[in-house]
């Protein structure tokens, strides 16, 4: 076993115990390039009749592909954050081509998105293999590599409007790889103790979502629309930009917050709402 594999085992042990761990994530300037291209895309006036938006299987509650604008609203009793997000999966380029969308100005950027997506898939596969070692019998590696599951993994770029915050929630994924948040200046708050996490270069944060909590014996709390307990508990998290602004040592760029995350999925439905 090499040094990288030993390091991944130690991080898998941390994840097994707490539901979260840091990861080495040496991608150089790639995150900045992807964020910059996303901001350029957001300058386009496509929010009405948006040709970059694909809703492939709404009856199955599948995530959308492409550029999605979601207004803040009360949906089925849940207050949904107002945000714009971009979902990248490898199929997106062929979907744009099939629809006849002229994506030539963004062709190189889409290739960068594909590169980042592939790095995330490789990272989660390595992590799943390590987690199988420290938590045998759960077959995480096989689940994330399932052919149907591979169509669900997604790179998400988010842009929040107004105060840039996000209410506390648990992700519906197996796990989330959190790579970047407005150049690292906006804190993510994790767990009941609201531990503050700031993005740092060459690292990422992996934390547990609802699907892994369900897979490891958690119970669903209908009132909170969250899972409680489980051998690997789902991590509740949120963002409050105002708390970071009070820190004079941090220079906040007064622009909309952008975050870059990757959701790893497995086949299976979840109770509750999005």
- Give Rg in angstroms: 18 Å
- The strands making up the biggest β-sheet line up spatially as 1-12-9-16-7-6-3-2
CATH uppermost class: Mainly Beta
Number of beta-strand segments: 16
β-sheet strand percentage = 25-35%
Q: State the distance separating the first and last CA atoms.
A: 40 Å
The name CATH uses for the topology is: Jelly Rolls
Question: What does the overall shape look like?
Answer: globular
Question: How helix-rich are the residues, as a percent range?
Answer: 25-40%
Q: Average the pLDDT over all residues and give the rounded result.
A: 83
Count of DSSP helices? 8
Task: Describe this protein with a few key phrases.
274 residues; alpha+beta; Jelly Rolls; 4-stranded antiparallel beta sheet; globular
Describe the structure.
- The chain is of the alpha+beta class.
- It has a single domain, classed as Jelly Rolls.
- Helix content is 31%, strand content 26%.
- It contains eight helices and 16 strands.
- It has an eight-stranded antiparallel β-sheet with strand order 1-12-9-16-7-6-3-2.
- The longest helix is centred in the middle third of the chain and has 28 residues.
- It starts with a helix and ends in a 10-residue tail after the last strand.
């Amino acid at each position: 076993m090499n040094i990288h594999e030993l390091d991944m085992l130690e991080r898998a042990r941390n994840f097994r115990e707490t539901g979260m761990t840091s990861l080495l994530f040496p991608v150089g300037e790639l995150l900045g390039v992807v964020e910059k291209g996303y901001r350029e895309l957001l300058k386009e006036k496509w929010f009405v009749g948006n040709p970059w938006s694909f809703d492939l299987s709404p009856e199955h509650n599948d995530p959308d592909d492409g550029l999605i604008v979601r207004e803040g609203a009360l949906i089925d009793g849940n207050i949904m954050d107002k945000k714009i997000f971009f979902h990248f999966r490898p199929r997106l380029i062929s979907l744009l081509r099939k629809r006849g969308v002229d994506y030539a100005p963004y062709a190189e950027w889409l290739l960068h998105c594909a590169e980042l997506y592939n790095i995330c898939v490789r990272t989660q596969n390595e992590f799943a293999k390590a987690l199988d070692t420290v938590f045998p019998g759960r077959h995480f590696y096989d689940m994330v590599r399932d052919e149907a599951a591979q169509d669900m993994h997604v790179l998400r770029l988010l842009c929040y409007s107004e105060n840039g915050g996000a209410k506390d929630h648990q992700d519906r994924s197996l796990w989330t790889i959190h790579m970047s948040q407005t150049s690292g200046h906006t804190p993510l708050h994790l767990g009941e103790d609201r531990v503050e996490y700031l993005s740092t270069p060459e690292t990422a944060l992996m934390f547990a979502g609802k699907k892994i909590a369900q897979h490891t014996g958690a119970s669903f709390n209908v009132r909170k629309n969250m899972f409680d307990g489980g051998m690997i508990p789902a991590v509740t998290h949120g963002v409050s930009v105002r708390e970071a602004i009070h820190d004079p040592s941090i220079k906040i760029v007064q622009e909309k917050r952008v975050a870059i995350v990757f959701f790893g999925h497995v086949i299976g439905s979840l109770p509750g709402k999005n």
